[in-house]
Amino acid sequence: MHKLAKHIVVRWAHLLGLLLMTGCASVPAVHEVIDQAPTGPQKIVGPRGPLSSAQSKAVLAKLDQQSKGSDILQRHLAIEQSLADAPLIAGNRTTILRDGPATFHAMFDAIKKAKHSVYLEYYTFENVESDDLKLADLLLAERQAGIAVAVLYDSYGSIDTPVDFFRSLTFRRCRGA
Fold first, then answer.
1. Same domain (yes/no): 152, 114
2. 3-class DSSP state for residue 115?
3. Which of 19, 56, 68, 156 is the most buried (most CB within 10 A)?
4. What are the helix (H) ranges across the chain?
């Protein structure tokens, strides 16, 4: 009976592996569109909704000017809009965070500035610390201030996270999934 159970587990593992590999087969073929110029007007969305054609052209002209004659912006737009059918969002900014301390400092700062809600997504969810403040204490303080707090974490990646850490958050109405 033990050999039969092992055989069944091996069969299921193979089936799961095949299913995972077929899921990867649907990745878009970027090489087909990487050198294409954008076709049609570019969709740009601002904080108050879609921009007019004139506003979109002004944003693209400014971005094009900042790229110093490089065609990288146009190539990026072609890829984004042909593969993802997603508009360019105006007003975004990017900050390079080079290491854990810089990342946690920026993350804690953003959580402190939340006005309505905090949504975190983690693979390995831990009670990290930044500037002598632990993540659990910060989330609980935000929750006490009326900010909705929700955390999406991977149960496998967070398998070594102490259960008491999760209990302390859920007891005080921080949502986790």
1. yes
2. coil
3. 56
4. 2-24, 53-66, 72-79, 100-112, 135-144, 163-171
- pLDDT, tens digit, 9 for 90 and up, residues 125-173: 999 999 999 999 999 999 999 999 988 888 888 899 998 888 888 755 6
Is 74 part of a structural domain of the chain? yes
| Residues 51-75 pLDDT 10s | 788 887 787 777 777 767 666 666 6
The pLDDT assigned to 139 comes to 93
Tokens of 61: 């002209």
Q: Are residues 111 and 172 in the same domain?
A: yes
| Domain that includes residue 130, residue range | 100-176
Q: How far apart are CA 89 and CA 116, in angstroms?
A: 22
Instruction: Determine phi and psi for 10, rounding to 5 degrees.
Output: -65, -45
